[in-house]
Design goal:
The complex is a heterodimer of chains A (about 475) and B (about 300). Chain A has about 475 residues and is of the alpha+beta class. Chain A has five domains: about 5-95, Uridine Diphospho-n-acetylenolpyruvylglucosamine Reductase, domain 2, CATH 3.30.43.10; about 105-220, Uridine Diphospho-n-acetylenolpyruvylglucosamine Reductase, domain 3 (2-Layer Sandwich), CATH 3.30.465; about 225-335, Alpha-Beta Plaits; about 340-430, Alpha-Beta Plaits (2-Layer Sandwich); about 435-480, no CATH class. Chain A contains 16 helices and 18 strands. Chain A has helices at about 5-20, 25-30, 55-65, 120-125, 145-150, 160, 200, 235-250, 260-270, 290-305, 320-330, 330-335, 355-370, 395-415, 430-435, 440-450, and strands at about 25, 45-50, 70-75, 90-95, 100-105, 110-115, 130, 170-175, 180-185, 210-220, 220, 225-235, 255-260, 280-290, 310-315, 340-345, 375-380, 385-390. Chain B is of the alpha+beta class and about 300 residues long. Chain B folds into two domains: about 10-150, Uridine Diphospho-n-acetylenolpyruvylglucosamine Reductase, domain 3, CATH 3.30.465.10; about 155-270, no CATH class. Helix content of chain B is about 30%, strand content about 25%. Chain B has helices spanning about 10-15, 50-60, 75-80, 90, 125-130, 165-175, 205-215, 225-235, 245-255, 280-290; strands spanning about 1-5, 25, 30-35, 40-45, 60-65, 100-105, 110-115, 140-145, 150, 155-160, 185-190, 195-205, 260, 265-270. Chain B has a five-stranded antiparallel β-sheet with strand order 3-4-8-6-7. Chain B is globular and about 60 Å long. The chains are: A alpha+beta (about 475), B alpha+beta (about 300). At the A-B interface, β9, α7, α8, α10 and α15 of A face β7, α5, β9, α7 and α10 of B. The structure holds flavin-adenine dinucleotide. Flavin-adenine dinucleotide binds near residues 79, 80, 154, 459 and 480 of chain A.
């Protein structure tokens, strides 16, 4: 990192671009930016800048290129994998002041937004046209579209609707050398784009290819009918069988979410929704579409749940109850704060059919390491979120918690799955990359990276084995949600 | 030069010794590796014909939601390399939306994998999207894993001849703002035939019936076929693409020849149209240089 004098000079030159009030270099101010929602590693960036336009972003990036400083794009900082960590200092470019919905185009079912625009704001503005933006991460009241593009975010409704890459038509990106490119479908342009799919290549690149400044997203028609069920089961196995039977019946629900007993108890205590406290597992099944078809499938789903010995199948009575149910589900991580001083959220994926097996495995891991591990997950996608509870004041527990996470993700790979379904590799899961991929697979990814960032200056020390680590491993309370 | 390897390892070996390869035939690399109906995923080698693949999936009531012309001759490899699609593109998206994993032999002979076999996966950079539509110029796709869908319970197509483009435009507008959720929304005029609007529905029978009834109310006639697409498109490789709202105004500039348009997508197949322009030429060039520095594969 640069010396103090350099830092003064840097501050001045950044301020020339964005103004004094948009540059942070005091340690007290920088602390907010020392980590994201993954808090096991922390480090201060050299400076944080808050640009207001793509032009400012490009100027900052060019300055950093001249000074050979790392740049780290940042949205809302809700990453759960340390993707925004300034491992070796550098200039963090926070997009939070570029947060406007620029244009909603109902005729073409598109919206043009700035990168710092909060995910939920797009639907808020599109709703009056009977449209919505489909990817709905649980963090959607906070996370930004730029962050979503960088992590290819999903959410409870990705089973039917797909993830970010299926809904982002194009975006503007400032490359690490300061050039500005529009990748993919242009605003007002057609959806066929010539050449290689650079748009697709950049989605999920975890902020390592450049700084996204604007995005053109696809809007979908709001389905006219919804039916949302709560199925109550004695065990995760039974609920998993219901999931398999629903899929086998040729039904693709909008969402298929499962919560185990520890989670429902915590949620109940926190939000008093009316979850049964004695149920081994609760399944949320949401159907959407046209009224007749939804009605027809609802009868099938009800029947399937009962055949699999659901002790209760409850249908959300109205939109308000449906909204309350989803609010509860999406705040599940938050409720965990009541159970334990600290927790780590894992994000493994297994083939759907292996859900009962991975759940059994998690139970043995929990016993072996003497740690509680509640589960709330996207059952339809096979995407699990075991929450490993621990107390940072006990170093032995911290170690066991890390080991438990390692065991579970290792098992996901063994079962033919992946170590991350939506949270990304970031700084957290680097070591798993060489377990899930061969050296050649990883080298091909590095080739793609060199196309965008030959100097590896953009969000460096992430994703790939051999990357530099933060010296200190701090254990602080998880602030996620 | 065309390569005709019998196995993937033979392809690897051939590529390390070749320059200026312009085609690879993978007819011998054409197995269904795995189909897991409960996961709605399947892994297949690139040489398999799309129609054969669909027939295997259909045995358990599933399909890969893509319908390019001539599935009997289209291979999984060309489906991906040329990013092919058909009339159901409006309802189903393109093959990019259904691909979850790839195996590719790079120009230097290295076999790599990207993505995986699970439907949700963000580990590492996404090379899958990059290779779709890359026309095999960055490497040869040898195997792919897809998400699948259940075959729709019902599927119906209706058509309506229109007197003028203005009338077609009006109808399209009506459909666009209605509650209808078509899987197909095409406009075509072929070989001096009438300007025809085509609408298709797929899904639970109750929905397909109800929507077909609404379309009948708009004077669409049932029992229409989508054959026009394959017949016409065999001869029309180039096409422009516009925002859906600009479809009619663009058609007005294109003259009287036959055309097929994906009205819902704004994609127009027209013989006199220009191909889409190449954006970010500098980056495009860098991609090719990075993956094929020796120019093993032409293009
Ligand atoms: C309570 C909670 C629930 C969550 N639920 C979900 C969920 O359901 N599904 C899901 O997918 N994720 C979920 N997440 C994870 C997180 O919200 C997503 O990864 C989100 O996309 C991050 O957005 P952000 O704006 O906070 O980005 P940040 O955390 O600021 O950054 C994340 C990554 O994106 C990069 N980045 C940010 N902005 C830009 C930009 N403009 N240009 C280039 N790169 C950029 C950063 O460099 C970093 O690599 C959850 C997180 C929390 C705390």
């Amino acid at each position: 990192m640069k010396s103090k004098a350099d830092k003064k000079d840097l501050t001045r030159r950044l301020a020339e671009i964005v103004g004094d009030d948009a540059v942070l270099t005091d340690e007290q101010e920088l602390v907010v930016y020392e980590c994201d929602a993954y808090t096991l590693q922390k480090n201060l960036p050299t400076a944080v800048v808050l640009p207001k336009s793509a032009r400012e972003v490009a100027a900052i990036v060019r300055l950093c290129a001249d000074l050979d400083l790392p740049i780290i794009p940042r949205g809302a900082g809700t990453s759960l994998s340390g993707a925004v960590l300034a491992v070796d200092g550098g200039v963090m470019i926070a997009l939070t002041r570029m947060n406007r919905v620029l244009n909603v185009d109902p005729r073409n079912r598109r919206a043009l937004v700035e990168a710092g625009c909060v995910n939920a704001w797009i639907t808020r503005d599109a709703e009056k046209h009977g449209l919505f933006y489909a990817p709905d991460p649980s963090s959607q009241p906070a996370c930004t579209i730029g962050g979503n593009i960088a992590t290819n975010s999903g959410g409870p409704h990705t089973l039917k609707n797909g993830v970010t890459t299926n809904h982002v038509l194009g975006y503007e990106m400032v490359l690490p050398d300061g050039t500005v490119e529009w990748l993919g479908v242009e605003p007002n342009g057609g959806e066929e784009v010539g050449g290689y799919d650079l748009r697709g290549a950049g989605i999920g690149s975890e902020g390592m290819f450049g700084v996204v400044t604007r995005a053109l997203v696809r809007l979908s028609k709001t389905p006219p009918a919804f039916k949302t069920f709560l199925g109550v089961f004695a065990s995760v196995e039974q609920a998993s069988r219901a999931v398999s039977d629903i899929i086998a019946a040729g039904i693709v629900p909008a969402a298929l979410e499962m919560m185990d007993q520890l989670i429902t108890q915590a949620l109940e205590e926190a939000y008093r929704f009316g979850f049964p406290l004695d149920a081994g597992a609760v399944l949320i099944v949401e159907l959407d579409g046209l009224a007749n078809g939804v009605e027809q499938q609802a009868r099938q789903v009800d029947e399937i749940c009962r055949q699999n010995k659901a002790s209760e199948v409850r249908l959300a009575r109205d939109d308000a109850e449906r909204a309350a149910l989803w609010k509860c589900r999406k705040r599940a991580f938050g409720a965990i704060g009541r159970l334990s001083p600290n927790y780590v959220t894992q994000d493994g994926v297994v083939p759907r059919g292996k859900l009962p097996e991975i759940m059994r495995f998690i139970r043995t891991v929990s016993e072996r390491h003497d740690l509680r591990i509640p589960n709330v997950f996207h059952a339809g996608d096979g995407n699990i979120h075991p929450l490993i509870l621990y107390d940072e004041r006990d170093p032995a527990q911290v170690k066991r918690a890390l080991q438990a996470g390692d065991d579970i993700l290792g098992k996901c790979i063994e079962l033919g799955g992946s170590v991350t379904g939506e949270h990304g590799i970031g700084a957290e899961k680097i070591d798993f990359m060489s377990r899930q991929f061969t050296r050649d697979d990883l080298e091909a990814m590095q080739q793609l990276r060199r196309v965008f960032d030959p100097e590896k200056r953009c969000n460096p020390h992430k994703m790939f084995p051999g990357a530099k680590r933060c010296a200190e491993f701090t254990q602080k309370k998880q602030v996620a949600a | 030069m065309t390569l005709k390897p019998c196995t993937i390892s033979e392809l690897q070996a051939l590529l390390t010794r070749s320059r200026g390869v312009d085609a690879v035939s993978l007819d011998a690399v054409a197995d269904l590796i795995e189909h897991v109906p409960g996961d709605m995923t399947a892994t297949v080698q690139a040489g398999m014909r799309l129609a054969d693949f669909q027939a295997r999936l259909a045995k358990v009531g599933q399909w890969l939601p893509v319908d390019p012309p001539e599935p009997e001759t289209v291979t999984i490899g060309s489906l991906l390399a040329d990013n092919l699609s058909g009339p159901r593109r409006f309802g189903c998206g393109t093959i990019r939306d259904w691909l979850i994993g790839l195996a590719v032999v790079l120009p230097d002979g290295t076999l790599i994998r990207n993505g995986g076999r699970v439907v949700k996966n963000v580990a590492g950079f996404d090379l899958c999207r990059l290779f779709v539509g890359a026309r095999d110029t960055l490497g040869i796709i040898v195997e792919a894993t897809f998400k699948l869908l259940p075959l729709p319970e019902a599927d119906a197509c209706l058509a309506k001849p229109c007197d003028s483009l203005g009338q077609a435009e009006e109808l399209l507008e009506k459909i666009w703002t209605s509650e209808l959720q078509p899987s197909v929304l095409d406009l075509h005029r072929i070989d001096g035939g009438p300007l025809t609007l085509v609408i298709g529905f797929a899904g639970p029978s109750a929905d397909v019936e109800a929507q077909s009834e609404v379309a009948t109310g708009l004077r669409f006639a049932g029992g229409a076929s989508l054959d026009y697409d394959a017949r016409f498109r065999r001869t029309t490789p180039h096409f422009p693409s516009v925002a859906p709202a600009d479809l009619a105004s663009t058609l007005r500039t294109l003259g009287d020849e036959s055309f097929v348009a994906r009205a819902g997508n704004g994609v127009i197949y027209h013989p006199s149209a220009e191909p889409p322009k190449l954006p970010s030429p500098e980056l495009q060039k860098r991609v090719k240089e990075m993956f094929d520095p020796e120019g093993v594969i032409s293009g």
